[in-house]
Amino acid sequence: MAEAKKMSNDVCWNAVRIYLGVDPQHWIPWGFGFSLPSRKQIAAGASWMRCDAIFPADWNFGSIRSTSGSADRVAVDPPADFWACLNKDPKKSEQPFVPCDQPHQYEETGTLAILEGLARYPSPTTLAAEAQRQCSHAVHSDHGTIAVTARWDPAVSETGELAGPCFTFNKTGEPLAPRR
Q1: Eight-class DSSP state of 155
Q2: CA separation, residue 162 to residues 9, 92, 104, 130 (Å)
Q3: Domain segments of the chain: what residues?
Q4: pLDDT tens column, 94-133
Q5: How far apart are the C-alpha atoms of 20 and 140, rounded to whole Å?
Q6: Whole-model pTM above 0.85?
Q7: Residue 86: which of 102, 97, 72 has the closest Cα?
């Protein structure tokens, strides 16, 4: 059963990612869940697996929100309620999402920064430089006070990869304009 759960974890992560349209140029807060048949169902011949797309209700992914309708490719052109807008630095996970149609401090760009081929976790200086290099292209403002940051994964994956969603913020501390 442990092997089935590990395989389900890998299979569902990728299946849900593809279904949502998540890639380095398209990102929204998301997760996945899976269900397997019970031991009794397996003994009776069941051989199914169900993968579910999950959308968090807060930035620490501690609770799930209800949605309705299809989520097929939702990351490619997300409705406003699928974006992550925050009032604290995205590196702080214990915080609620705030409405993007109201002034807010941080707003996701819808893109990911990715580092590959890592043997160990990079320094904060390296992470800041990579966020600047990889996230800046997604800034849609000529306003010189808009800056970028990324919330990097807490650990390098087994494949030596590290990813972080990109966010914009105003260097002056002024809120970003409501997203329309």
Answers
A1: S
A2: 18, 18, 27, 11
A3: 1-77, 83-180
A4: 899 999 999 999 999 999 999 999 999 999 999 999 999 9
A5: 23
A6: yes
A7: 97
